[in-house]
Design a protein that fits this description.
alpha+beta; 8-stranded mixed beta sheet; 6-stranded mixed beta sheet; 27 strands; 24% helix
Length: 505
């Protein structure tokens, strides 16, 4: 019955425009009843009564969603009961007056279309990192274009920091700002919703200074089998890996045909493994045995070394932290470790022992990505709890040279230097919340290129950050952008001369 009613509503909608003439804006007496402060297009487009997702209209007076506009539809009934008359079709972006049923054409409603589905020209996209217009909300609050808070619905701060960071990567962002640039974008609901969130994030005429990821997180929960769902905190690294791999698959990425995800994040690393095994040495038995000797000869073993070389793609690199001091001293200073010491894992000579496979491995990067993602592994799990390593990792915010960890010679002109664009960190809550099982929260520092300012963003709280303090934060996940100015190498900073150490890859 519900399907039949939907079809009847659609047939009525097709017949009404033919029966009734379209009226101009001056002919509609209800435009003054529109309340823009109640409009919120960030939520999933489903009817508030029937929970259906097709043929949805938004009431521009109260902001609720209803299905259809025929005489037996939810929107028609709402217009009679509540006295709300102006509705917007969320798919066609056309305005109608109910219950009369005529289409409303008025240029004063264009701002509502822009908030529902922002569009961008190539000139506007090219100026995003150059110009910063003065943006204001309906309440008159000023905000910086591209620096908007993301609503924390419930324990989804781990996803918010990833979405904020990805939204500030110029090449990746610009692709999804072009809404109709790829057929693959239309085939993937996840890509469509991420594109919509990106376009709203950089919209210069938002009604509020924050947006909600509800529609995107609903699709994430569905696609991940509720592995990442609202109300359950997860790891930003796990979410980032799943999000990039799923987008890459939906966009048709492969070895022969590169997707936008592979163009931005994929690098390659060569892994050399060495495994030593002791095997029993074969000894020829003598023709005559000494039967009077009661002792048997001890078995002899020989060492067999197996070497293997593989080349693998990567989207991010994991850096292992040095173990913290065994006995904690509250008066002692917090230990510090340079980022270059952690990167020595990829110099091609440092051997890492893998207990699971009993192998020694060396790593060397053969291809650098446009955006380098570094995961500083601060957490270790044991039988009782998860422990956090609070060692401060000192890192450069500009000019991180990855040449010593690649096959590029020092004298060769190449693009190997990176500049920091996003820094995600983990913070603990108050002690009483930690005792109750709270695992803390995540926030990030992000660079706004147009103003060359750093911002500290925690969900909907935004404040300007000082660069010297960023370098002293407990970094958990960092994203560097490749500086496309060719240069020659320089001497690697001192430190990190350990050749052999145990770690888990």
């Amino acid at each position: 019955r519900a399907m039949k009613r939907d079809r009847d509503d659609e047939s009525e909608e097709e017949q009404q425009p033919a029966k009734q003439a379209k009226l101009e804006s001056s002919s509609c007496p209800y435009l003054g009843t529109i309340d823009r402060t109640r409009l919120d297009f960030d939520f999933e487009k489903v009817c508030s009564v029937s929970m259906q997702s097709n043929n949805i209209y938004a009431c521009l007076v109260c902001g609720k969603y209803f299905q259809g506009r025929g005489k037996s539809s939810q929107a028609y009934t709402h217009s009679l009961q509540a006295g709300h008359h102006v509705f917007l079709n969320l798919t066609t972006k056309r305005f109608y007056c109910l219950p009369d049923g005529y289409e409303v054409i008025d240029s004063s409603l264009d701002d509502i279309k822009g908030v529902l589905d922002p569009t961008w020209t190539e000139e506007e996209i090219a100026n995003l990192d150059k110009l910063s217009p003065n943006c204001r909300t309906l309440e008159g609050q000023s905000y910086t274009q591209g620096v908007l808070g993301i609503n924390n619905i419930k324990l989804n701060d781990y996803a918010n920091v990833i979405l904020q960071a990805l939204g500030h990567l110029s090449h990746f962002r610009n692709y999804f700002l072009r809404a109709n640039n790829s057929p693959a974008l239309e085939k993937s609901e996840l890509a469509k919703r991420w594109s919509a969130l990106t376009r709203k994030m950089w919209c210069a005429y938002n009604y509020r200074n924050h947006i909600s990821p509800h529609e995107l997180l609903q699709e994430v929960s569905k696609r991940s089998g509720k592995k990442f769902r609202i109300g359950v905190r997860s790891s930003p690294v796990q979410f980032l890996v799943w999000f990039l791999n799923t987008l890459n698959k939906d966009m048709g990425g492969s070895k022969k045909r590169k997707s936008i995800v592979q163009e931005c994040f994929e690098g390659e690393v060569i892994i050399k493994s060495e495994k030593q095994e002791k095997i029993l040495k074969k000894v020829e038995e003598p023709e005559e045995k000494d039967i009077f000797n009661g002792q048997e000869d001890e078995p002899e073993f020989e060492t067999r070394i197996t070497r293997n070389t593989t080349q693998q793609p990567f989207f991010y690199l994991t850096l292992d932290m040095p173990p913290p001091p065994l006995f904690k001293d509250e008066k002692a200073a917090i230990p510090q470790e340079p980022l270059y010491n952690l990167l020595s894992k990829f110099d091609g000579t440092t051997k890492l022992y893998v207990p699971q496979t009993k192998e020694y491995k060396t790593f060397k990067i053969t291809k650098l990505p446009k955006y380098l993602i570094l995961h500083i592994n601060r957490f270790t799990n044991n039988y009782w709890a998860t422990e956090k390593n609070r060692t401060i990792v000192t890192f450069p915010m500009r000019g991180l040279d990855m040449r010593p960890y690649t096959n590029i010679s020092p004298d060769e002109l190449a693009c190997t230097r990176y500049n920091l664009v996003a820094n995600i960190r983990h913070n603990e809550n108050r002690k009483e919340l930690i005792d109750q099982g709270d695992t803390g929260f995540y926030n990030l520092h992000v660079l706004h290129k147009a103003t060359e300012k750093w911002y500290d963003i925690q969900d909907m709280m935004i404040e300007e950050a000082l660069p010297p303090l960023i370098a002293l934060s407990e970094a958990y996940l960092q994203i560097y952008e490749l500086d496309e100015t060719p240069a020659r190498g320089y001497v690697l900073p001192t430190g990190g001369d350990t050749v052999m150490k145990d770690a888990t890859v």
